Amino acid sequence: MVRNKRWMSLVIICAVLLVVAGCGNKEKPNNEGASDSNKPAAELRDVQVMLDWSANTNHTGLYAAKDLGYYEEEGLNVKIVQPGAGGSDALVASGKADFGVSYQESVTLARTQGVPLVSIAAVIQHNTSGFAAPVDRNIKKAADFEGKSYGGWGSPVEEAVMKSIMEKDNADVSKVKMINMGDADYFTAVKRDIDFAWIFYAWTGIEAELREEKLDMIYVKDYSEALDYYTPVLVTSEKMINEDPELVKAFMRATAKGYDYAIKQPEEAAALLSKAVPELDKDLVLASQKWLSPLYQDDAPRWGEQKESVWKGYADWMFERKLLDKPLEAGSAFTNDFLPDSP
């Protein structure tokens, strides 16, 4: 999965979010009260979860919770849907979807524009994205970007991140040739006209391993603590939290159990994802799941835990680089209140 395609979605989302901020009265009504885990199927409450991108191992816990009946135990009939062109944020903020998969950078931008999105769990504790290049391009550190061709989408955030880490190596981002990748995937693009791109290793990096195409990987978190942000995250709206907190608790109890299953039983969890989304490459799903499962919780006391220092650090980084119009009130952008003490 090429990281930059997500930034293109973010550009689209940003335009939509400005409109969504005034759409609070259009949200669908919520049923009141907690869900009864013993309800018959006919009485299960319909809940829609919108993904951020095509289904992949970032989402395994959701599919596990659905397949293993954890949502039904909480009285929920959960439908997992693919995002439209505008991504999940706008639909969650407007109440058209109950929950969604997003990213800290997207929620940060939304919050500073008055859009009431709230992150309720970090899917992965540490940023697994970075700049990847075939080994024959000899890109071993950020300074080696100079004179090379980068495939992206022209987002100001891409260049800001690249500039930030290149400065650590006393290098100049203006010496990088920026190329729009269009619809090409990473493997096509590096054979055609680029030297490196921003990817998530858990998917594209693992696919490279299966293809036996060796990569040099420069993780952005290794250059800056501020860039070790949460990506992806689960989100809902402030309205949902305020008006139906019991639904959020029920959803998170089941979801946490799903991710705990994926952590402890990666092979079985991979099989569940492949069953739910049969068009995915089963070998890639299995290899990716084995790599990613230990990283969901990592060094956190429980899956999903978020720190205010992480939210503030990345938002301050964005503001200093003029990627935000104003500072973020970090404490209001996320909550750990709906995470169960144990799955």
TrEMBL record:
Signal peptide: none
Source lineage: Bacteria, Bacillati, Bacillota, Bacilli, Bacillales
Pfam families, per database record: NMT1 (PF09084)
Domain of life of the native organism: Bacteria
InterPro entries assigned to the protein according to its UniProt record, in alphabetical order: NMT1/THI5 (IPR027939), SsuA/THI5 (IPR015168)
Example of a GO biological process term: thiamine biosynthetic process
Chain ranges of the SsuA/THI5-like domain: 56-269
The protein's name in its UniProt record: ABC-type nitrate/sulfonate/bicarbonate transport system, substrate-binding protein
